[in-house]
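G., the chain you wanted modeled:
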Amino acid sequence: MKKLNALFVVIILLLSSCRSDDGTMLSVAVAQEPPTLDVMVNSSVSGRNIVVGNVYERFLVLDENGDILPWLASGYELSEDGHTFWLSIRENVFFHDGTKLELSDAIASLNRWIGVYGNAGKLTAGAFFTEEDGRLVMRSSASLALLPLMLSSSPQAAVAFQKEAIDNETDNGLVASSPGTGPYKIIEWIPGAYIDLSLSGDYWGEKPVIEDIRYNFVQDPVTRRMGLESGQYDFIDTVLSDDIPALSENDSITLHQGGETGSIVLVMNKREGIGMDNDFRKAVSLLIDREELMRSCYGDYGYSLHSDYMEEGEGWSVDPSLDPYGRHDSEKAVAMLASSKYNGEKIRILSSNLSNLDKIAITLSFQLEEAGIDTEIIILDWASFSAARYDSSSWDIYVSATSRVVLPIEKGYLFSTSAGGFDDVESEDLIEQVSASPTLDEAKDRWMAAQLRLWEYIPVIVPGHYSTVYASSSALQEIGFSDGYDFRKASFE
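Predicted structure as tokens:
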């Protein structure tokens, strides 16, 4: 009787999960739909999780230990002085339409990436790739020591597109359509509904076991959770902390706790208003209860409390105890507020309603109000928020989440073009020194000096870092979590 019941359960799970008869169909529910699949321009985490590595591949990648590996490249070399970089392209790599990946495609792709990704353009100081003796070469007046790491990890991904697709990019500056070199090809994208991927017939590398993947766009976390519990979905991202206790008791579901995948940032308006006053920014940093802010969004799970800008595990972390304004200190905060230019004006706190960020804004408002600072909360949908933060006349502090980057020079809020502005010459000089470092080790030493200065300048306040929690059917094995999540080695038991 027990064997019969077990068989019945297996049949129900297979039917309800919408897999094909051989168990190779995977149904995934993601919280956010990417605005475009041009991942050189689009830095959204959802876009990278869906197509980078699956459809479009980088030339260099990071392994699970953070080491750089050639991928579409067969190898790379950096000159002793750090100013010349060579990249060799792997032979017998083909796009999904059957055409071969040529040097001309690689040069067009990487030069476009340098053009559209501001951090890459700054790092290379105006240099681009050319062909020399069958390899790509770049010669720059700046140090290129950090270029291999940026190529392998940048949020705007350095992937291979066809040169023809780049030459014919649309009027809005996007590559509308290009076959990739990855194990999967795009079968269908229904905006607001799903993206379907299917194995490519001719892939240069090791083929995944799972043949078809559907990424369903399901913004509501309750719908994602119920879909997983019913077997409609095999994997869901961004599990809310409120759902973790119940899911952890379900034997048919496995929870996956990743490392620090990003940080919460309170971005101060340094273009106009009271946010331009450094003493006011210091007062806010001392007033807030960081744990209360993080718990309002994540509950009892999925966050860590430290104020350094970089996530743990990449070798860039600076001891947060060295942050003079990184902990709650009411007495010091009151003194700093009194020395600031704050004169009772209303502090406008801008946030989106995405992934409980509005709860942080509400908690922040409450904490500032308790300290005698008048506040106004402005909650928008993600698209409206993304536009509104560039209108510096409409807010004083905005609440957001930034995804993990491997290099601190890729933190968008550290540049004058950012929504919050940036006007500290000393900090800018120190960040430039990080970019100009002749070696990676020296860059990390210089970042420590930059981080110490940034804790004084306070362009943003980092109350803590979040760790995304995922959940899957227990039958789904060998999911990769080194950079987001991927299913290239996954299979069903």
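The first strand starts at residue 25 and ends at 30.

Shout if anything looks off.
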